[in-house]
Amino acid sequence: MKILVLNCGSSSVKYQLIDISSEEALVNGIVERIGIEGSFLEQEIGSEEIQIEKEVEDHSQAINLVINTLLDDEKGYLEDIEEISAVGHRVVHGGEKFSESVEITGEVIEQIEEVSDLAPLHNPPNLAGIRVCRDLLPNISQVAVFDTSFHQTMPEKAYMYALPYEYYEEYGVRRYGFHGTSHKYVARRAAALMERDIEDLNIITCHLGNGASLAAVKEGSSVDTSMGLTPLEGLVMGTRCGDIDPAIVPFLQKREDLSPEEIDDVMNKNSGMLGLSGISNDARDIEEAAEEGDERAKLTEDVFCYRVKKYIGAYAAAMGGLDCVVFTAGIGENSVTMREKILKDLDFLGLEIDDKANQIRGEEKIITNPNSETAAAVIPTNEELMIARDTARIAGILQ
């Protein structure tokens, strides 16, 4: 029983073919530079890697290329398209309409469209992939899995902004949160790693990558998260500023004579690690420059880690205690230095890092001392597997 998982971005389509019985990823692939000169497909089957250079003008052509490659006698994996039992689609924003993954219908597509102005860079390509797959694979179940759905358990006090209430009523202005499939997956893996029931645990999950967010997971449910109406709020990220004084926006608009679109670009595309360091949005480049003595790179590291540390303290207080901190995604899984800086001086929360155990990259492991009252763990995320599990459940493939 095979599930095709699709993650459609503005100029890319990531995909995995997963055997849901064994939860094994059979095929990994991506089509990049959609609508841009020099587009190509890369695919891995075990140790076999291929690249196909082909001009791909839109998502319809991209998904056609994916399916044709999967069916190719030499380069593919499938003999027949009907080997695909269902397709799981990552959808970034579900608003308040979707607290769970759902089977895709015409009505669901309309509802996703209604909240697309909350994620204008993400939902439209997600919808494009859904429409193409429904046309190409009309007899195969399609399921939407939302980044926001895991956070729909947040209480009002956590998701409401102190703005005129009618903005919430009319436009849905509130905190939604993102990276939900990742936070959900690693929280459950943390409970398993600790050999504890997740309903007995207070866990803080740290999804730290080019996009970064934290979630407070109490008894298995999200009760708070750092991203807000959009993925801009919260932590310092690769190119996003995270939390700032809102008055900075009109101040800079006046001083720099910026339009709303231009100030939005400044905050989303030119800030964060890139803006602070002047070097790169890639944490690996920042770490390297910091080690070589670059002062702005050091400052960037310090600001990033300080912001994460503050949120950990806040969420421990909000949940009334803490049992585990989980690091995941590119920085969380691979940066020994960043994890060490974040956990430093958190011994008052019962966190005692084991320096030797922390010397890992991309490996699932508890990195605190055995006698540490509170655990910290590195857990590689697997959003595709979470999407495949939900897809199989919704489509009735696995009971």
Structure characterization notes:
By secondary structure, this protein is α/β, with parallel strands linked by helices. It has helices at residues 59-71, 106-114, 123-136, 156-159, 165-171, 180-194, 248-256, 260-269, 272-277, 283-291, 295-319, 329-334, 336-343, 383-395; strands spanning 2-8, 12-19, 24-32, 40-45, 48-53, 84-91, 102-103, 141-146, 202-208, 212-218, 221-225, 324-328, 365-366, 375-378. The chain has 2 domains: 2-146, 2-Layer Sandwich (Nucleotidyltransferase, domain 5), CATH 3.30.420.40; 196-383, Nucleotidyltransferase, domain 5 (2-Layer Sandwich), CATH 3.30.420. The strands form 2 sheets. The chain has an 8-stranded mixed sheet, sandwiched between helices. The radius of gyration is 21 Å and the shape is globular. It starts with a strand and ends with a helix. The mean pLDDT is 93. Substrate binds at residue 90.
Q: Approximately what portion of the residues adopt beta-strand conformation?
A: 15-25%
SS-derived structural category: alpha/beta
Assigned CATH superfamily of the largest domain: ATPase, nucleotide binding domain
- Write down the overall geometry: globular
Spell the H/E element sequence: EEEEEHEEHHEHHHEEEHHHHHEHHEEH
As an assembly, this protein is single chain
